[in-house]
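Sequence, please.
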C-alpha cells in the first residue's frame, strides 16, 4: 500500500493534513484515517502545500473546523470538498 497524500487523525475531523510535496489541483488523493486505520480517496480542487489542510466535505461559512479531533477555528468563507483550507478561509474564534 502506498503512503497517503493526507492524514486525518479523528473520524469526526472536517479537514485532513497534506503530508506530501507537490499536490496539484484536480489530483485524486489518498487519505488515511489514523483513528480506525481506514483509507479513502478525495479529489483535490486546489494545489495544496505540504502541511496545509484539505476540506473533507463542504464547509459553510461560520462552520467550526475540526482537526485532530479539536476545534481549530471557523470558516469565514464557503469551502468546497477537496478545497484548500488556510488563512484565506479559516480564522481563530479567539479574536
Amino acid at each position: 500500500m502506498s503512503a497517503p497524500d493526507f492524514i486525518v487523525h479523528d473520524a469526526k475531523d472536517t479537514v485532513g493534513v497534506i503530508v506530501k510535496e507537490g499536490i496539484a489541483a484536480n489530483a485524486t488523493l489518498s487519505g488515511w484515517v489514523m483513528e480506525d486505520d481506514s483509507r479513502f480517496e478525495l479529489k483535490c480542487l486546489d494545489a495544496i502545500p505540504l502541511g496545509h489542510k484539505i476540506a473533507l466535505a463542504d464547509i459553510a461559512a461560520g462552520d467550526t473546523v475540526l482537526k485532530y479531533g479539536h476545534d481549530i477555528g471557523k470558516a469565514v468563507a464557503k469551502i468546497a470538498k477537496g478545497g484548500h483550507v488556510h488563512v484565506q478561509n479559516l480564522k481563530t474564534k479567539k479574536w
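The two ends are 43 Å apart (CA to CA).
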